[in-house]
Amino acid sequence: MLLLALGCLLLAEPPTLVADTAAGETLSDAELGAPVAVGVGVWDVCVAYEHGSRCNGTAELPPGHTYVQVDGGLTGYCGITSEGELYCNTDAAVDAPASAERVSVGEFTGVAIDNGELRAWGDNDYRLADPPSGTGWSSVALGTYNGCAVAEDGEVRCWGEDGFDVTDEPRGEFVSVATADFTACAVGEDGDITCWGSTDGRPPGGSFVSITAGHYHYCALAETGSVECWGDDDDQQSSPPSDHFEQIDCHGYGCCGITDAAEVACWGDVGDENF
User: Which DSSP state fits 62?
Assistant: First the structure.
């Protein structure tokens, strides 16, 4: 636990992170600027800053760009620039669209929202590369066996394997959804959390704005900026710090977020023990 805490404290300037810029030079923390987005892969993390990006372990974002959203999976990362361009270094990324509003990367599959449509690429095991058709999708999340997306009218649709009835979505109006390991949870417009499928633990009460998931654990961001987690806690992945956050992301057995003090904090297993 002490090692984990030290890793989180050192995240602002970890020695094992590699900084990238369009010119390829290494920048100091001050030159990188404030963190803009964080994406957690299965065993690593990438952080997008105002003027570059940093990743730990062997992870990397496609170089030469500044990103406003990033996400990682088992085989790589994708990022969306402020101009809406999508860049990926995941397997089969050649089939990814050139632009996107949102992106989610699973184990071997990616899904992006491009002009309101769900566009998938990669492995079609569990039918993850066959998302719902139509337009008007506002958010998307990929898990190991399922994908779920929220439409602009608040409807949730899920696809993939139907174990534990994950594709039997609840009715209602939702703003955020996450799915992992035959479970899905969504935040309603009223801030309540609804879960279905093989639920891992009971979601907390309160008013929330977004939700994210790793293997057998979930974390939700409250309106107050605090984070509540539940499910597996073997690696302290369900034991978030007491900071207030602007955004959070989980994958695998760990999570990271950007605090309201413009710092990056992580909990659980995010890869390199020196991170």
Answer: P
Domain segments of the chain as ranges: 2-269
**CATH code reported for the domain at 2-269:** 2.130.10.30
DSSP 189-205: TTS-EEEEES--SPPPP
- Give the integer Cα–Cα distance in Å for 266 and 8: 5
Q: How far is CA 160 from the centre of its chain?
A: 19
The residues, any chain, with a CB within 8 Å of residue 265's CB and separated by 6 or more, are: 8, 11, 241, 243, 245, 256, 257, 259
Residues in Cβ contact with 219 at an 8 Å cutoff, skipping those fewer than 6 apart: 211, 212, 213, 227, 228, 229, 238, 240, 248, 250, 255
Summarised one tens digit per residue, pLDDT across range 165-214 is: 999 999 999 999 999 999 999 999 999 999 999 876 789 999 999 999 99
Encoded tokens for 143:
């898990």
Q: Which amino acid is at 16?
A: T
Cβ-based neighbours of 39, under 8 Å, separated by 6 or more = 45, 46, 47, 48, 69, 70, 71, 72, 77, 79, 105, 249, 251
**What is the Cα–Cα distance from 228 to 214, expressed in whole angstroms?**
14
Amino acid at 85: E
Distance CA 2, CA 16 (A): 19
How do 137-142 and 117-122 pair as beta strands? unpaired
Instruction: Note the pLDDT tens digit of each residue in 29-87.
Output: 889 999 999 999 998 999 999 999 999 988 889 888 999 999 999 889 999 999 999 99
